[in-house]
From TrEMBL:
Pfam families: DUF1801. InterPro entries: YdhG-like. This is YdhG-like domain-containing protein. It comes from the Bacteria. It comes from Nibricoccus aquaticus. Residues 1-21 are annotated as: Disordered. SUPFAM superfamilies: YdhG-like (SSF159888).
Amino acid sequence: MKTKNTTKVRGDGGGDSGTQEVDTFMAGLDHPLKNEIVEVRRIISGVSPAIQEGVKWNAPSFRTTEFFATIHLRARDKIQIVFHLGAKARDDVQSMAISDPCSLIKWLAKDRCLVTVGDVVANKAALVAIVRQWIAYV
């Protein structure tokens, strides 16, 4: 499915254009794990009131001051989320200390990783912990 690649998010005035945009995107999404993606959206958005949603890179994405996580929709058999510090790799990042006792993280670079959630319900607490730690770096 083709959708516009946009970056609208909820504004500080309490608007919900980002959530509406993602809702519209999700309504047209044909994905075998759509229900799990909806749950991941709910989990990530619930971690902090500072987290907003938008469609970025043709996928549901999350931001505080900038985008930090994007659901990897190409994976059709598991839920994966790319955590990053924006669109471009950052050379100023020395290391990121993210506790990962459930071994969900695969580091792709110093400033980005791929989190494979597997069972969303069973790994909810681990995902919440990763998001909380990650947004401290954004």
